[in-house]
Amino acid sequence: MNKMIKLPLFLGIVGGICGGLLAGTHALTKGKIEKDENIRKNAAYLVHFADLANTRVADSASFQAVWSTHKNIKNINVIEVLNSSEAVIGKVYEATVKGFADDIVFTVSFKDSSINKFVVINSKETAQGAAFIAAFDGAANVSIDKVVDYKSGSTTTYGNVNEAIQVCYADYKGN
Q1: Exposure of 161 by Cβ count < 10 A (0-12 exposed, 13-18 middle, 19+ buried)?
Q2: Per-residue pLDDT, 148
Q3: Mean pLDDT by 10-residue block, N- to C-terminus, for the chain (175 residues)?
Q4: Each residue of 119-152: b (16+ CB within 10 Å) or e?
């Protein structure tokens, strides 16, 4: 058989086998990956109220009308955290914003006029943006008026995260 036929045929067969294996692996692991992602998100929600016993996460609801005019905010969900009596003990906001390198997903909760807790779920920022995120991850009792001093090079990350926090805070205050 001619090499002009054998090589493309061989590459097509190998490519088809590899594609089939990749699709099969995806089908087998998709459910577990989604389950693990939900466990990680629920843990990020509950850490906001870790000092309270017997808490659980209620269903999330998007409040798109609040943030839809902000071009750097991709999504914000509000999650109610319930106690064992099914009473709402607080709200956690999950936000997805445009970062400099990639999307940043974080949760934030408020108490009075300050941030109760800020937890990063996913971020793949470049050096300065990653430094800002790392410095702010896990922050508690931060004044809403001054989220954190941004470092040179993290202006995009800081601005978009701060914008989402301000939108969440306005919803928290009922504005």
Answers
A1: buried
A2: 53
A3: 85 95 93 82 71 56 53 82 73 85 85 81 77 74 62 71 86 77
A4: bbbebebeebbbbbbeebeebeebebeebbebee
- 3-class SS of residue 57: strand
Please state, in angstroms and as integers, the Cα–Cα distance from residue 44 to each residue in 38, 61, 70, 122, 171, following that order. Answer: 10, 16, 24, 11, 20
| Structure tokens, 104 | 């940043």
- The pTM of this model reads 0.66
Secondary structure of the chain: what % helix, strand, coil (to 5)? 45, 25, 25
pLDDT of residue 153: 57
Rounded Cα–Cα distance for residues 82 and 29 (Å): 31
